Amino acid sequence: MSPPDRLPADLVLEGGGVKGVALVGAAVELLRRYRFERVAGSSAGAVLAAFLATGLDADGVLERASRLEYDRVPDAWAPVPVVAPAVGLLVRSGLHPGRYVAEWVRRELADLGVRTFGDLRRDDPGDDPALAPWQRYRLVVTATDVTRGRLLRLPWDYRDYGLDPDAQPVADAVRASLAIPYFFSPQTLRDPRTGRRSTLVDGGVLSNFPVETFDRTDAAAPRWPTFGIGVGDTLSDEDASVFPHGRLLPGPLGLLDSLVATTVTARDRSYLAQPCVRRRAFSIDTSGTGLTEFDIDEAERARLVASGTAAARDFLAGWSWEDYLRECRGAG
After folding, report:
1. DSSP per residue, 66-121
2. Within a domain: residue 34?
3. Count H helices, E strands: the chain?
4. Which SS3 state, helix, strand or coil, does residue 179 take?
5. Domain count for the chain
6. What is the percent of the chain with per-residue pLDDT over 70, rounded to a whole number?
7. Which residue among 202, 207, 257, 283 is the active-site one?
8. Rounded to two decimals, what is the model's pTM?
């Protein structure tokens, strides 16, 4: 059980496919000291963010995470090996439909009483006064609109598409954020005012680690910290790949695979290297596990969770809220 006197904090979770398993260990460790007022995430980070936004404690997070059958995440368009994924890639722009993980998220959130973003509304008079009513939620997930060429922060940006943020299903936003290009099929968002359709893919294409999501825009000092948890190392020398065994793909296909993987995993690295960003964020060592290796066994999943736990403990051992305020926010 989590202690009742936990401190408030916001949390931002990086995407990283199956590497996101490590986020569970780190988040659970932080939950023993902090409660999360708001949570943001991209791709795999969006899945965990959605559950944390419901207010689950450490035990609840571990219980929910244990229910996901990872080997079912790369599902099939039809029960025809090899042929169905190839047809899906050519016709629907994705090897896998992503139905299993979307319905799993929908079912588990509904069991927790959360279906739409209206169930996660948060009205706190102490928040940044610049926050509009459509930005006052416990959860934000990122997606990329490749039709309009823009980053989406959902539910904040639903209004730009003529949609009521309160009425939008949380699971739909999470599924859009999960749409690793070419691995999962993209999602479609339709503007009811014009009928125009936008194609949405993984939020990591434009911002895989949006640590600044909850930063205040007024002159006031933050009331509590925003922590960021990443699942990659800036100096990693592993081959970047989306497709399983992508490093073996020939010529143009191999280049495309590496390009997509690099876009999803490395977009924010220069920003994250800034000293005051690094003060409030930490990365978990997930080397040896590929982005889309969802067939990892139980021992590998346990290793990733333990790696996340260790990274969080190391971070907390050197964390000082007072030092951060003084050195990075100019507060006395």
Report:
1. TT--GGGSS--SSS-TTHHHHHHHHHHSEEE--HHHHHHHHHHHHHTT--BGGGGB
2. yes
3. 11, 10
4. coil
5. 1
6. 82
7. 202
8. 0.88
